[in-house]
């Protein structure tokens, strides 16, 4: 990416932070809070997700068969099914059916995808969106910024100003009730006058041809029942085998998207219906001549079905949980974190599949791979992996001109042409080795103004961000000279402490603390010379390099695993690699063996104490006041409770942040185009650690990124929680 492109992206993000960020943040937080509360009330939340996942897997596997089945069902009912190859094909058919007649629409992202409004209007039809948010955007001539709440970026005041300016009503509109009533009356007339109603479909049952529409306003029912012709537009992936299969999705979709136990309207149509319609004079007439057309759209989906890496995208039920749970999306919305149609984490898969990789490339880097969205997805889609794969494909499609700046310094397994910034951050382990070897000179050089200016211009490393300071003596070298202090024959357990790149070369103090804490609990520790886990290159879409790193790490840890000993990890994102991503990077046997024997340091300390280790061997916290922030992937792995339990048992008075992301996200916060966004996300966390109750507390955080961000934004230095337990 050129300097100009970085500046343009930074300016765009800065603009959205200033104009739309507050509204997006407030509204997504409401959705998130509602989702946590609503899903907690389910008896078997994970079981429902497993059931929904299984249905989607089965559907996509049998999709050609189910398409034949739904065609037969709809045609038996008297309707028509049209299979459209792409957007142009769908629009040609829809425009022909509409025949220039006025059209009223309920909300449909698929209709946004094919840009059907433009096609209909070009044919002379008058087209109106009847969903309130879509109506607002139609009047404003703006694209949606959210899959479920398309006008989430607009405040009530902005909408009032828009309506007052555009419609010039007799009475000035101000309150939400006034705005809603105005839209209802205005659109009610349009619905009565229209002859064609268009809807999407959340689900379509193949056995009966029944459409399931999940809405909050009831406008979809009006569009269907008050018009002569109903056109339903949906992607082929919206099929489910039977009506019975709707149950888990009905339970999950509203809870996942907006935090409601159930939406206001769940409508099941088995069209064509026979309710009366309005004639040209507004009088009721017979409805037995109503037409129904189901337009099922491929537009790249069948190709996605054959793509092992993008296939999971088709399991998406468009709930937006991935967007709502994403810190970056919460601060800029879909006008930055989105492509031609779709927004949020899953948007990368959709955009790459239906619009092409160029569309996905515009926002793909906003996914930092934190994995928080995975636990929120009702069909358990591995969204970070889809983003990583697409990023890898984007990398491989580029030719680079500045590779000479890092060639030789950053040898890796990926082809040339990768953006020089990504190649730099993807090889942090190599850079850290060099920085450590030449420390403290390397630290002094990188702090100079000329060096920072050069790095910003050529590598996109923001000069406002402090760089890591490398230690001359790595953790591995320190341990080699020090040795183990616990006899393996007398030890309670034997472990290998994994030396991630940051712990090994930058924050060695937390690694040394981990060693001393484990030894105090009678654990024999070894620190093998294992390299980068693959997290750094994976975050840049350098999958081949990540796989090579994973293989090397496993080779270094294999003797420990084979001996039945444990692997303890300080950095949560590296444990997440062992527990999650290595499934895709290593042979199954190696992955399962390492997963079963690897633990986060505070989780491991908790386990030792629960199994008889003497807590008196650790320092007494003396009711020291602590403010603790848990790393994203530590929360995803559900490890936060172990840290809190250990600190409490050791006598610390601990309060925690409920902010789920610090905003640093590895290398993300160093990149000049994302610096303002990173800080904006981080300020939310800072606010929680500068209250009357937290301002004087010792700040601790589990993740490297969190520590770097907190150090940058707070006036007091943060530490890893294991350092509170250090016996030295």
From TrEMBL:
The keyword 4Fe-4S applies. GO terms for biological process: lactate metabolic process. GO terms for molecular function: 4 iron, 4 sulfur cluster binding; oxidoreductase activity. Gene3D superfamilies: NagB/RpiA/CoA transferase-like. InterPro entries: 4Fe4S_Fe-S-bd, 4Fe4S_Fe_S_CS, FTHF_cligase-like_sf, LUD_dom, LutB/LldF, NagB/RpiA_transferase-like. Keywords: 4Fe-4S, Iron, Iron-sulfur, Metal-binding, Plasmid. Pfam families: Fer4_8, LUD_dom. It comes from the Archaea. Residues 359-386 form the 4Fe-4S ferredoxin-type domain. PANTHER family: LACTATE UTILIZATION PROTEIN B. This is LUD domain-containing protein. It comes from Halococcus dombrowskii.
């Amino acid at each position: 990416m050129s300097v100009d492109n970085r500046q343009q992206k930074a300016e765009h993000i800065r603009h959205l932070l200033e104009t739309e960020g507050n509204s997006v943040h407030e509204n997504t937080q409401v959705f998130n809070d509602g989702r946590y509360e609503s899903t907690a009330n389910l008896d078997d939340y994970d079981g429902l997700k497993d059931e929904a996942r299984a249905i989607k897997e089965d559907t996509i596997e049998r999709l050609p068969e189910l398409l034949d089945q739904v065609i037969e069902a709809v045609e038996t009912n008297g309707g028509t099914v049209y299979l459209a190859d792409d957007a142009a094909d769908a629009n040609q058919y829809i425009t022909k059916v509409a025949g220039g007649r006025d059209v009223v629409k309920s909300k449909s992202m698929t209709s946004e995808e094919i840009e059907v409004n433009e096609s209909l209007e070009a044919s002379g039809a008058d087209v109106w969106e009847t969903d309130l948010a879509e109506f607002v955007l139609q009047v404003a001539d703006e694209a949606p910024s959210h899959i479920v709440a398309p006008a989430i970026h607009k405040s009530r005041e902005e909408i009032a100003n828009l309506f007052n300016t555009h419609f010039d009503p007799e009475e000035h509109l101000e309150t939400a009730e006034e705005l809603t009533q105005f839209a209802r009356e205005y659109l009610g007339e349009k619905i009565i006058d229209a002859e064609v109603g268009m809807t999407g479909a959340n689900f379509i049952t193949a056995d009966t041809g029944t459409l399931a529409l999940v809405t909050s306003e009831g406008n979809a029912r009006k569009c269907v029942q008050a018009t002569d012709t109903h056109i339903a537009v949906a992607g082929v992936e919206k099929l489910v085998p039977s009506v019975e299969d709707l149950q888990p999705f009905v339970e999950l979709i509203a809870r996942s998207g907006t935090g409601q136990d159930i939406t206001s309207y769940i409508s099941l149509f088995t069209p064509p219906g026979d309710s009366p319609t309005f004639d040209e004079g507004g009088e009721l007439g017979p409805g037995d001549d109503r037409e129904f057309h189901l337009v099922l759209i491929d537009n790249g989906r069948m190709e996605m079905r054959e793509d092992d890496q993008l296939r999971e995208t088709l399991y998406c039920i468009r709930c937006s949980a991935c967007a709502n749970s994403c810190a970056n999306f919460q601060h800029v919305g879909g006008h930055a974190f989105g492509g031609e149609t779709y927004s949020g984490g899953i948007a990368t898969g959709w955009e790459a599949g239906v619009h092409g990789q160029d569309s996905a490339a515009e926002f793909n880097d906003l996914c930092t791979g934190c994995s928080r969205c995975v636990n929120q997805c009702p069909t358990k889609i591995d969204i970070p992996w889809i983003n990583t794969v697409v990023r890898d494909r984007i990398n491989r499609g580029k030719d680079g001109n500045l590779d000479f700046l890092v060639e030789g310094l950053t040898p890796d397994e990926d082809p040339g042409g990768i953006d020089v910034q990504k190649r730099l951050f993807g090889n942090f382990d190599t850079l850290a080795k060099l920085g450590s070897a030449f420390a403290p000179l390397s630290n002094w050089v990188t702090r100079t103004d000329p060096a920072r200016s050069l790095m910003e211009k050529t590598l996109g490393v923001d000069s406002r961000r402090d760089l890591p300071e490398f230690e001359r003596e790595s953790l591995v070298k320190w341990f080699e000279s020090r040795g183990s202090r616990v006899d393996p024959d007398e030890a309670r357990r034997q472990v290998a402490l994994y030396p991630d790149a940051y712990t090994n070369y930058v924050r060695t103090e937390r690694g040394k603390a981990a060693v001393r804490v484990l030894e105090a609990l009678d654990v024999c520790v070894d620190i093998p010379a294992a390299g980068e886990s693959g997290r750094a290159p994976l975050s840049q879409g350098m999958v081949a390099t990540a796989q090579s790193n994973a293989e090397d790490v496993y080779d270094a840890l294999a003797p420990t695993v084979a001996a039945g000993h444990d692997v303890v990890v300080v950095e949560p994102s590296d444990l997440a690699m062992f527990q999650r991503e290595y499934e895709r990077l290593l042979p199954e046997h190696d992955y399962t063996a390492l997963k079963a024997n690897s633990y986060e340091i505070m989780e491991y300390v908790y386990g030792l104490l629960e199994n008889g280790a003497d807590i008196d061997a650790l320092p007494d916290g003396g009711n020291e006041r602590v403010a603790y922030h848990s790393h994203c992937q530590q929360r995803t792995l559900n490890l936060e409770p172990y840290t809190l339990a250990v600190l409490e048992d050791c006598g610390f008075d601990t309060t925690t942040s409920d902010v789920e992301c610090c905003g640093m996200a590895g290398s993300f916060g160093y990149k000049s185009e994302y610096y303002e966004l990173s800080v904006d996300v981080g300020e939310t966390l800072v606010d929680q650690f500068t209250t009357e109750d937290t301002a004087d507390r010792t700040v601790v955080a589990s993740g490297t990124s969190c520590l770097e961000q907190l150090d940058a934004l707070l006036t007091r230095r943060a530490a890893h929680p294991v350092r509170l337990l250090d016996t030295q």
